[in-house]
Prior knowledge:
Mean pLDDT is 87; it is low at 12-22, 99-103 and 302-333. The protein folds into three domains: 2-97, Carboxypeptidase-like, regulatory domain (Immunoglobulin-like); 117-300 and 350-886, Maltoporin, Chain A; 301-346, no CATH class. The chain has a 22-stranded antiparallel beta barrel. The chain contains twelve helices and 43 strands. By secondary structure, it is mainly beta. It is globular, with a radius of gyration of 31 Å.
Amino acid sequence: MRKKLKIVITAILTLSSTLFFAQSHEINGxxxxxxxxxxxxxxxxxxxxxxxxxxxxxxxxxVTSAAIAPxxxxxxFGYDTKEVVAKDHIIIIQLVQENNNLDEIVxxxxxxxxxxxxxxxxxxxxxxxAKIRNITPQTSTNDILTYLIPSFNSSRQSSSDGTEHIxxxxxxxxxxxxxxxxxxxxxxxxxxxxxxQNTVGNGSVGTDLSAIPASAIKRIEVLRDGAAAQxxxxxxxxxxxxVLKDNVGFDAxxxxxxxxxxxxxxxxxxxxxxxxIGNKGGFINLTAEFNNREKTNRSQNNNLIIxxxxxxxxxxxxxxxxxxxxxxxSRQFDDNLLAQKGLNRDDFNFQIGDAKIKNIQGFFNASIxxxxxxxxxxxxxxxxRNGTGYGFRRLPSETENVVFSIFPLGFQPELNSVVTDLxxxxxxxxxxGEWKLDLSNTIGENKFVYDVSNxxxxxxxxxxxxxxxxxxxxxxxSTANLDVTRLYKEVFNGLNVAxxxxxxxxxxxxxxxxxxSYINGGAQSFPGFSPLNAVNENRKSVGVYADVEADVxxxxxxxxxxxxxxxxDFGNTLNGKLxxxxxxxxxxxxxxxxxxxxxxxxxxxxxxxxxATDIVxxxxxxxxxxRNDSDVAKELGIPKLKEETSRNYSFGVVFSPTKKLxxxxxxxxxRIDNRIILTGNLGNDAYGxxxxxxxxxxxxxxxxxxxxxxxxxxxxxxxLDLVIDYDMNVGEGKLNLSLLYNYNNNKVDDxxxxxxxxxxxxxxxxxxxxxxxxxxxxxxxxxGTFAVNYSLSKWNFLLRNTYFGEVIRDGxxxxxxxxxxxxxxxxxxxxxxxxxxxxxxxxxxxxxxxFPDRQIYENSYFGVFKYAPVQMGTTGAYYFGRMxxxx
Length: 887
């Protein structure tokens, strides 16, 4: 009896202890991505129950189960769902990213940390650069975005001073300074360069995307909606956020290519290394990149130049020549006669094309969790660029421009730039319960140093140097941010609250060059900055914002944002945004937003001034850009600059018929009032003839004509974005089809703002057809891309056709109106993995050597400029080979 009782008691105790253990079976785990970095906000569900938890900022979670070995279901936006049998008390679970990056969680557009691209109330494009970079023909960030984001446009300029060395870019046809660039969600500084050579973005100051090596970027998020109320000044057209790499491992990539005309050779070498720091998800990622691009030449060269053979042959010490409109006459050019004089055609070439650029860059990105509540992070880098561009050729018969004893054949000046870009961002993230706090400071500086060579200063005669140090300009920006967020899961179906403040300091400088570069008219092509041009100005601004987004129901999302900013140099502004998204069906959403915005005039627009060489009706003249607060501006009645203001409206549809097919269509309307522009050359009338009174006035300041920044225009932009992305299995391979399309129509109001009384009746001079066409018709109204990407075993194939729609350029008053027909550019890449770690790729950008239509003679500077730098640019076919190595 005693033995039986002992057995029963033992059984009861064993069963009791088993039940107790089952009730308290605690699992501690960590969720990471493929690189071992922690994933926040992953959902861990115990299968067969309603028990679930969410991973924290370090990817950690804790869950209790009644089962000894429960099955956990882990889900996270942008990653494949995973089921794991939790046999151990401590586990690490690694998620694999989905091939379709449309579901990837985004940083811009919503401060809700759980919103994917398809769930935001405004359109966001995601370019997973780390995945596609090895197969895309383009190597720079600007070029990559041009072929992947339909509303993004960038084209290289020629004979346009500093603009040759920093390609201006636009989003939705607006100015480079109307799109805000972020790195890891932090504001990026702009360049120190003002675009003033009548190119796209004339009068604006953009951000140099090429200063950030593409090999350092994990992905690019493009918010296609006005976001000034969320992110501040400059975000009228949208926001581009560059998310830096955080992977562990080593990658090396080398690309070499050239054009079908045996020029424009490019060499790109980049190295990327990432390593873990500690055991809490810390990392450091380092990138080094070298890029060298040789010049291209797309001029008519000697084919349209006719020399007076008698003057060449008679040895009288002079050369005279003329231009002609008839290419057939070029046969009069006698190569044998030139050879007798020790000359050849190359001695008279015009260099018109892409500038020579050499870039050396380094970047880093790091994160170090100090404990479960505090994380330190930092990023930054350096870019050092040397560029060589070319001015207009000076003819030997132009005695007012050429010192004959130095350049008996005339000369083509060279503008040599050294562009140095430095940046760093450091911060701490804190976690106080459910509250998150982010405190950071970001600082960046861009410096542009000019040297002019192969030129002369006529006023110095035979003693003129041929190389000049022409001065420099620089821009520094320091931004301190405090951001606070919290996600209330129990309020509605989720309420995200964010608020914070920003303090920004900006400084702009112009430093004079050596005296010979600016005295008495200065060096030809680019007179140096004089002490009168010197600038050392700064300003401060303070901003506060609040951003609330709520899933009011399972179907309805509403967001409200407001921002107040105060600038020391122009005043304050208050802007707001209302956005919403409604789920009609689980796979059909509608979304829309209404917002106001602003852009403060940049320090560059307020204080940049110089004397530059311009071509007016075939004549080389010195044209001044004068400060808005200068004496000459006051004499002419030029009004003081004020901020641009905008109103943005958008409405869109998101439809996902299947998990692998996604369709988004978004309409937008943008109204900008008091937009800042750079006037035309004042000093001429509407037909290009001199106005004596104005010429006399500008002569007092060393110029024949003058230009000013002013809030002269209002613009209206209407457009449509369409994105279709489809993944499917074809045989044993995977096929991705994507169709991207943008329609964009910019219109400048007929009536100008605040025009001085002196220029009433001269509106076509103050802001003429040429300046108007740069905004209205110099970027394509229609642009679309259809891409096919197929991967099979070790092979990857990319075929992409990009349509650049018609553009219209107006050369008034010295040229004509020309339509450049729409063209299709084809990219093709074939990649093969020799081993799992080594891949080679061969391909082409612009496979069929497509160019814009040739310019009409009136717009081509006597036939020298064969093509205008519009649409796909003037490079033509570019062929490349690439080898990639990963470890």
